[in-house]
Amino acid sequence: MTLDEQISFLTRGCVDIVSKADLAKKLESGKTLKIKLGCDPTSADLHLGHSVALSLMRRFQDMGHTAVLVIGDFTAAIGDPSGRDSTRPVLGQEQILQNAKTYTAQAFKVLDPAKTEIRFNSEWLNPFVAGKDLLTTLQHITVAQVLERDDFKKRMAAGNPISMLEVLYSLFQGQDSVALEADVELGGTDQIFNLLVGRQLQKNNGQEPQVALTVPLLVGLDGVKKMSKSYKNYVGLTDAPEDMFGKIMSIADEVMPMYYELLTTENLEDIKAMHPMAAKKKLAHILVTRFHSKELADAAQTHFETVFSKKELPSDMPTLSPESGALLSAVIFTAGAAPSKNKARGLIEQGAVRLRGEKIMTDNVLSYENGDVLQIGRRHFFKLVK
Fold this sequence. Notes:
The protein is α/β, with parallel strands linked by helices.
């Protein structure tokens, strides 16, 4: 690739590039660049929204550069305030470390393990806080800079509190870049302030400032809000192949180009020329292949086409033998089709549960005949046996 082609490939889908001239200079140097991505393990699972930055990092790896995935075991105990309208709950160290184990395993579904360094930021932030370095660094960050943050402005206007730990968060993230001597840092658009603080701290420490690249926040399955577990509009990286395929097929046609641009390297003009259904199946197959395998992607597509396109029941339904007198919500929960009985009742009230093809809208004792089919949502089918 020419230099311009490299920059175009590496910044595809990016919103902020600070700066393109700095990136060109680093690429022209011919050295192996350190590409940093910080990830606070605040929950156990990653979803496609997280994989946007991971996919960008993989592009750098494919160009011969080194990915440094920073697990924020120190910063997770504070909580990143970026884009938040309230303070995050503080996590215990045991929970943080448990979540971190799942993060690294899931990240390697996208990243090349041979070209990835895993670092925990407590390694340098614990001594940074314990010594005098923190006080020295604070001299170079002004109150005005911090209060210019849009998220802080909104919270103050709404009367929501901002803790001093949250004020210091961007400084700690920036110190990660100093400790690693990062060449490039990646993040969502809500991270731009933190990334720029990293550039400033590197300058203060006599380092060449990192390039800051931000990617859009991926829209969720509802086509409106950002993908988030709290909004229940996400596709988890550990979702079963059939669930992942089916969820991707449910995204709105108008947001599909965004998924292609941010999650694949497919030619966008070719995709736009395809029928939306064909393009969506292709996208679902690409992503299920990436996070599982081609064989499982083939099987998931066959299952989708059989059940949803041809309106047939799947041939390999698991069997279920509900206890006599069990409420429908308890049966759904026991079958693993809902994370709780309350969620199961919600599915019933939404009309997402069918018995023998008929909707069940009330949570009563389940009455069924041997061989009846219970459908829960769009992807769960069970054959009931006594």
